[in-house]
Amino acid sequence: MTQVEDTSREMRLDRDSFAQGYFENAVYRHWDPYAIEGLEEDKQKLMDEDDLTEAEYEELRQTLARFGAGEEAVTEDLMPLGLVLEDINDQMFVSSQIYEEAKHTQFFDRYWRDVINPVAEHHGFEVTNPTDQRYYPDGYIQLFDDTEAAMELLLEEDTPENRAKAYCHYHLTVESVLAQTGYYGITSAFSSKGSDEVAIREFPHLEGLVEGISKIRSDEGRHVGFGMQKVRRYVQSGEVDEQVVQDTLQELMPHVANTVNDFEEAVNAVPLVTYARDKLTRRIDIITDEDAVIPDVDELVSLDTDGTAAAD
């Protein structure tokens, strides 16, 4: 039955659904990756760091390369989910999510062009591309390969369990654990927020980078909340055994750890791994505990003064 023949609804949209609420929040909070200010100042600050070593700078490039590739990958890989969702409110939200992932890709590409390469040239460092395979450890590659496979499986076998696994891969691991850990690390190293334990050396505050990260984290609060709502409903309704969710998340955690634990020159990896494991535990608790409450959308997209999001 086509949408124009659908007589089951009085109105086209359910304004009270959490998916429609997330979509409206996305429209309200729209931002332009080319309007983020402060990149010229970031570039100058990094140029003024006369004692910056190439090994230290390489870890910044490593971080941003992984973010850019990750945002590009999920932009591509989310489409199967959009194709199998039946509800127009869900479809609208996932459409907005794909658009936002594309914007995130755009921001990291801009930062590499406008800041990373000019600073490398200034210091006489090797000028590298964000697609250089040196930046991607085996665990990172496996995580995104597994996520792509979980999404594509929906086109062959669309079941509640496979949907739950797809949400676990993308919304609850890639975005909720890996990305949030990376954002926490960047905020800690390049601003006054976050943890003092992350940065080994004292970096200048990079307001342009941190502002872009803050906008991206605001978007991803919605993405994480959407996935948590979906998986929680599957578990609480009994359609999917909670052990499937726990097993899927636990199986992916080593890939996350492998992605964040290879820093040693400028960043301390230990608090990042700890942060990631704490996020994973919190996700499982919210999904499996009947009394747990997922924050509303405004809280999900807000940032606390310590640089952490409510979705954390």
UniProtKB/TrEMBL annotation:
Alphabetical UniProt keywords: Coiled coil
Residue ranges of coiled coil: 36-63
Domain of life: Archaea
Listed name of the protein: Ribonucleoside-diphosphate reductase
Species of origin: Halorientalis brevis
